[in-house]
Specification:
Structural class: mainly beta
CATH architecture of the largest domain: 3 Solenoid
Number of helices: 7
Largest sheet: 14 strands, parallel
Helix content: under 10%
Distance between the termini: 95 Å
Number of domains: 4
Mean pLDDT: 86
Length: 807
């Protein structure tokens, strides 16, 4: 028998397996005639037969062959399913036949196809696959399919030794039963259940058609060398119905294939999957791990499955980069996950999952369903709902913000994944699985196995009684403590006493997040650079997405899917409960729904509902469209701030809200202030401010939207303030501003003013002097001003620490 040299090219796709009855060849090999074909086969690579049969072909191995037109795949001879057999063992052997295939010397390009193991009962090219019984070995089920690489044209001088390149067309599973310490366990009566066991393989086309209705138990083979169970299975999408049944210590137990440490979408042709099934014999605990995938049919073996040495280097070559980087050891516990593409911009997929696993025990800690999206006013928890805010350790109530959010979004050429709050913990190792269908991008083939793994950094060290300072940055090289403002707030809530002073330094950047601060004290949040335009805390939240302004709800941080929710709160930042002494310095707070996207609808940049506590905003910006600031709660101070919006963009009820040296910009025709203060409270005070408008705004920009009922009043005070002319004009034009009062304003009730004018120098009170008394603004005298309004001590006299309101 003549051997030959075969050049094997990388094969695409993953390795697979199948079954059939193995026929025995009889008779001797004839001498080769002119035009008769000898097939050469090289199986030096991975085969699913090597566990049982070694690394070589065996004497007597038989294949069935056909010769087809290279262009049409039609038969070019009457010979069908011609058997060829090898008569010696080896890695490179020749297969010959007593009735060899012949080709005509007419210049017709042909191709040869072959399959293994041989079956004499093939009809119309259809090879029957039956894999139920493998208790005596799976060799007879290992369906191999071979083809020639190039069309062949016969002439008398050509070599008739034809090289066939075989691939495995089915899949293989290996099951390892161990205890939690990785010691082998003795099990019996192992069955693979719920899987289809019949199919038809078309030798002419190479297409496998599975009979999904033909479901039966598969009896796997016992490899006596390892005591592992091994079985050939049909390549198919993974199903929750696929499970392993076994007997341990006289008790029947089950493990479901889908209960894995990683996401395994399907079993691919040509892959061998090794599963570790870890069992605690004393408890009902079974943990399944996909320990290895050997994909000998594939030039890209990490397209599916898992292998520890699979790294992200291949992903970079595939056209994208990861953040945190693969094998990073200093990731933030509150990090976003980013996949940045170098080519075409990605789009969000409409199916598949993104899953996060804790590496130590392979527990899935988070999951995002790409079949979902952020919806209008969600009523139950979905994977696109986040539950924000850690309950402080000294709090007496449990409140969270349950909000619909962008679990995954696209920024230019980057996919940004926002894990649910508190799913990642400090000083812990994780790995990420991203299904191929989760992202639509030509270079993306999914991220599986351990190809994206990282460790989070520890929390800062707590020193009781000292001032605690942490840094927030999106740049992992800044040696920061947290990625998000919420991450720092949650850290303080869980670890630091309320009475301790706390500082959050924020590096320059855009912080796209929804923030909840409740029942905490003595926190200063400030820009490191001092540039308020460089630190932007923003989100596109709105009433249409998370209705209302409620101060949280009683719900677990890890409430399961389907849990009822309500009043998620439409703001970017909410300060609630009895939070006290919360200060922001040199930052921007933006509701992008109104400001960037220009959409009209209730959408606060900040909601303050902090009972009797104090907040301060020093040199900050607030950007929105409608309801930019809800300045409610207790005592609020805005110093040198810029506040912009169109409709009621300063509103709410409070004890006192002092705006000092602020610019308040109306960016469209609307209303500025909608005060809903209790009659007993001073309410809104504007001192040394400027009310401005965008260029081109000449009318329908009202200063006040009156809101008066039995309990509330327009308690607003203007002092030493300058208004754009449009506000005076609109005030008197057809009396369009109606204070809805039944009597004139007084020093303690209604709208009051001291020393205010328009930008062209018109005294504001003189400008409205012809209106009825009940529509007028109270004129504060100099003595009244000095006594009641000239100092913070007089304005914040209801608060017990006046000195806190200092820059």
């Amino acid at each position: 028998m003549r051997l030959f040299h075969t050049l094997l090219y990388p094969l695409l796709g993953l390795l697979c397996l199948s079954c059939s009855d193995d026929e025995q060849e009889t008779g001797s090999n004839p001498a080769l005639n002119s035009g008769a074909i000898t097939f050469g086969v090289d199986l030096t690579g991975f085969t699913t037969r090597i566990t049982q049969d070694g690394t070589s072909w065996t004497n007597g191995d038989k294949i069935g062959t056909y010769v087809l037109n290279a262009e049409t795949s039609e038969l070019v001879s009457e010979a069908v399913n011609t058997p060829y057999v090898c008569t010696e063992a080896g890695q490179s052997v020749a297969f010959t036949s007593e009735t060899p295939l012949t080709v005509q010397d007419d210049g017709t390009p042909v191709k040869f196809v072959a399959y293994y193991p041989y079956n004499a009962d093939i009809q119309d090219f259809n090879y029957p696959v039956a894999i139920a019984d493998q208790s005596n070995g799976s060799t007879a089920c290992d369906l191999l399919y071979g083809t020639t690489a190039e069309p062949y044209v016969y002439d008398k001088e050509s070599d008739t030794d034809i090289a066939l390149k075989f691939t495995h067309r089915l899949s293989k599973v290996v099951l390892k039963f161990m205890d939690m310490e990785k010691r082998p366990l003795t099990v019996s009566d192992v069955k693979i259940q719920g899987m289809p066991v019949s199919a038809s393989f078309n030798v002419q086309t190479g297409v496998l058609t599975t009979d999904e209705a033909a479901v039966a138990d598969i009896a796997p083979y016992v490899n006596t060398a390892t005591d592992y169970r091994e079985a050939i299975i049909l390549p198919t999408a993974l199903s929750n119905a696929y499970k392993v049944s076994f007997v341990l210590d006289g008790r029947t137990r089950e493990w479901v294939f889908a209960d894995l440490d990683i996401s395994l979408p399907k079993f691919n042709p040509g892959s061998q999957y090794t599963f570790g099934i870890y069992i605690d014999p004393t408890a009902d605990i079974i943990v399944g791990r996909l320990e290895d995938v050997d994909a000998g049919n594939s030039s890209a073996p990490w397209d599916d499955g898992s292998k520890e040495e699979g790294t992200a280097d291949g992903h970079k070559l595939a056209g994208y980069n990861l953040f945190p980087a693969n094998e990073a050891t200093d990731a933030f516990a509150d990090t976003e996950l980013k996949i940045s593409f170098e080519g075409v911009a990605p789009e969000l997929g409409k199916s598949g999952y993104i899953r996060i696993y804790r590496k130590s025990d392979h527990k899935m800690v988070d999951e995002i369903n790409m079949g979902e999206r952020r919806i209008k006013s969600p009523e139950v928890v979905t994977s696109w709902v986040d539950i924000i805010g850690v309950t402080p350790k000294a709090a007496t109530v449990n409140r969270k913000r349950a909000v619909g959010y962008h679990a995954v979004r696209v920024e230019d050429k980057t996919i940004v994944i926002k894990p649910h709050s508190q799913r990642l913990q400090p000083d812990t190792e994780y790995y990420i699985i991203v299904d191929k269908t989760a992202i639509n991008q030509e270079d993306f083939l999914g991220i599986y196995g351990r190809a994206w793994q990282f460790a989070t950094k520890p929390n800062p060290i707590v020193t009781p009684g000292e001032e605690h300072t942490v840094t927030v940055s999106h740049n992992i090289n800044d040696d920061a403590d947290f990625y998000s403002l919420q991450g720092a707030i949650d850290y303080f809530a869980a670890n630091i006493d309320r009475s301790d002073k706390k500082v959050i330094n924020m590096a320059d950047g855009i912080y796209w997040e929804i923030v909840y601060l409740r029942d905490q004290d003595n926190i200063t949040i400030k820009s490191i650079s001092g540039n308020r335009d460089a630190v932007n805390i923003q989100y596109d939240n709105a009433d249409k997405y998370n209705g209302g302004i409620n101060d949280g709800m009683d719900i677990s941080q890890f409430a399961p899917l389907g849990t009822a929710i309500h009043d998620g709160n439409r703001s970017v930042i909410t300060i609630g409960g009895n939070a006290d002494k919360i200060r922001f310095e040199n930052v921007t707070i933006e509701n992008a729904y109104g400001w960037t996207q220009g959409q009209n609808g209730q959408a606060e940049a900040i909601v303050i509902r902090n009972d009797n506590g104090a907040t301060a905003f020093i040199n900050c910006k607030f950007l929105g469209y409608q309801d930019t600031i809800l300045s409610g709660g207790g005592y609020n101070w805005y110093s040198n701030c810029f506040i912009a919006g169109v409709t009621d963009f300063i509103w709410g009820g409070c004890k006192v809200s002092l705006f000092e040296n602020c610019e308040i910009r109306s960016t469209g025709n609307g209303r500025v202030i909608n005060a809903r203060t209790n009659k007993a409270n001073l309410g809104y005070v504007f001192s040394d401010c400027q009310f401005t408008v965008n260029e081109g705004i000449t009318g329908k920009s009202r200063l006040i939207e009156s809101y008066v009922n039995d309990d509330n009043d327009d308690n607003i005070t203007f002092m030493n303030t300058v208004f754009a002319d449009v506000f005076l004009n609109e005030y008197v034009q057809d009396n369009s501003v109606k204070l809805n009062r039944t009597e004139a304003a007084t020093l303690t009730e209604g709208v009051k003013m001291y020393n205010c004018r328009t930008e062209t120098g018109i005294d504001f009170l003189e400008g409205i002097s012809n209106l009825p008394d009940k529509e007028k603004i109270y004129d504060i005298t100099l003595n009244e001003y000095n006594t009641n309004f000239a100092t913070k001590a007089s304005l914040f006299k209801g608060y017990d620490d006046i000195d806190w309101f200092q820059e």
